[in-house]
Amino acid sequence: MSYPMTSLGSRAVHHNQGGDAEAEYDRLRGLARQEHDKRSSCLDKAHNAYERGDRAAAHELSEEAKRHAQLMDQYNKQASDYIFRENNAVGRVDGDTIDLHGQFVEEAEDILEQRIKYARSHGQKHLHV
After folding, report:
1. Which end of the chain lies in a sparser environment, N or C, as judged by fewer CB atoms within 10 Å?
2. Which tens digit of pLDDT belongs to each residue from 93-121?
3. Nearest-angstrom CA–CA distance, 25 and 35
4. CA torsion sign, 59 to 64 to 67 to 69?
5. Do the Cβ atoms of 81 and 24 come closer than 8 Å?
6. pLDDT tens for residues 8-39?
7. Can you give the pLDDT at residue 9?
8. Residues facing 7 on adjacent strands
C-alpha cells in the first residue's frame, strides 16, 4: 500500500527526545521517497516501452516498479513504527493518550483504529489523540 507524502503535525517528534530520533525518522522517510521516485521513473519508462511496442521491456519495468513500491512501503512502515514508539514511550504520554505526530494520514487512521479496539477491549471509556 502506498501512502501519499503528507503527514500529521509539523514535526515528527513531538517530545524533546533530541535530534537522533528526528534524524532516524527523516532518514527512513527519505529512503521511502527515493524508492517512490524510482518507482515513478520505472512506470514512466514502462509506459514509453509499451507505447513503442516493446512489451517485454514494459513488463520488466513494471515488475521493477513493483519492487520499488514494496521497498517504499517497507521504509514508510519502519518510519511509522519508529516514530510511534518514540512519541508514545512510557512516561511521554498518559495511558489514555496516543500521539500521532509524524504519521501519514492513512498510517494514523490504521493506528487509531487499532488503539480504539484495544481501548474498548480493556474497558477504557475515552482516548486522547
Report:
1. N
2. 998 899 999 999 999 999 999 999 999 99
3. 16
4. negative
5. no
6. 445 566 555 567 899 999 999 999 999 999 99
7. 46
8. 104
Angle at alpha carbon of residue 29, lines to 69 and 96, rounded to 5°: 110
Cβ pair 99, 17 in contact under 8 A: no
pLDDT: is 128 or 6 the higher one?
128
Q: Pick from 18, 12, 14: which is nearest to 92 by CA?
A: 14
- Do residues 6 and 49 touch, judged by C-beta distance below 8 A? no
pLDDT one-digit tens code per residue, 62-100: 999 999 999 999 999 999 999 999 999 999 999 889 999
Place of cell 519508462: 45
Residue 11's nearest CA partner among 27, 25, 1, 28 is 25
Query: DSSP readout, 67-112?
Result: HHHHHHHHHHHHHHHHHHHHHT-BTTB-TTB---TT-BHHHHHHHH
Backbone torsions φ then ψ of 128, nearest 5 degrees = -95, 130
Q: Is the dihedral of CA 22, 27, 28, 30 positive or negative?
A: positive
- Taking a C-beta distance cutoff of 8 angstroms, is the pair 99, 14 a contact? yes
